[in-house]
Amino acid sequence: MPAIADRPGGGANARGRGTAGMGTAGMGTVGRGRRDPCDTVAADCAVAEGPAGATGCIGMCQGMRPGSPGRQPPRGAGHGAGPVGGPGRGANRMAHSHGAWFAARGRPRGWFRGRTGDTSQGMTAYHRPTTLPEALRLLAEAPAPPRILAGGTDLYPARAAGEAWMRPDDRPLLDLSALPDLAAIEDRGDHHRIGALVTWAALRDAPLPPWFAALRQAAAQVGGAQVQNRATLLGNLCNASPAADGVPPLLALDAVVEMAGPRGPRRLPLAQFILGNRRTALAADEIATAILVPKAPGAVARFEKLGARAYLVISIVMVAAVIEAEAGRIARARIAIGACSPVAQRLPALEAALAGLPLAAAAGAARPEHLAALSPIDDVRATAAYRRQAALVLLRRALSTPLAAPAEARAA
Hints:
About 30% of the residues lie in helices and about 15% in strands. It is built from 15 helices and 14 strands. The chain has a 5-stranded antiparallel beta sheet.
């Protein structure tokens, strides 16, 4: 494909006048015969969508390049608010424009291929399917194992950091944001189904039963408002961070992860789905499609989180508790602690000790020995000893909150 400079009205940077870019691989100083990658993006989009598409693409490309001092997006193009921007900016605009690039009429069939490892000559392969079967087919046909994109609040920062440290991630992107069947919270009789595209904000604001209280409290505290509007709950699980805020509440709810693949659907308990730090049981040819949460009539739940501040912080310790009570006594307790081991853990010894106790005695039953299975680490946020002590404090705090089930919980 000829460079933009070889076309009428071609880009100035392709002719060698040059501007300073990000200073990373494929995004360095443009000029002296090197083409600006955004000009290449525009050329590729012009083939897929025509001249109007090229204008939008180059604006979005420049808007996604943080700190680029020499060039600004054209008026009306996406302005670089980053992957978690508000309406009309950042990720919302970015996701729409990505879809326009390659989901619009006239797009090339199959994967759009950039030159792997050389972002100065093309862009990463990208596809935005509109049905789950199409997504699975594209996953199977991808030229390299793709990154699955839902909210993008983990993926985009990771890719930007890789570029900044000259470790670009050129794996293809498979964008699930156009799959409407994955965006709902549904009552399925004996359980609720939370689709892969359900955001923290949607979960936070949904009229869910009381046993979801811990998960909704986590949703209200994760990141900030922008992150909550873009990030997805299932993406939080698939990222498999030890400090993932969604894991302890869902462990305490006995949640199950639903997956789809060429061998058909399958389900795994969350405790078996997350294998370790950044590792899951999701196969390379599978897509995680939903979280299934069994109903727990009469249960109440509580979430406690410790961080350096209230929002926009990685958790130091998290505690989630789901309590079912009868006649003022604990019939069943489910307790999980996060950010104190490679994977959040349930506390079966404490759960057994709580069974049969009066609700008022729950907090006093928590002992240091109940935390023996945890393996906290020293890092920039806290020492292992501090984490262990904080976990006990938060655990007692969660259990000291009034735990009697409200009327709507008993009637659910």
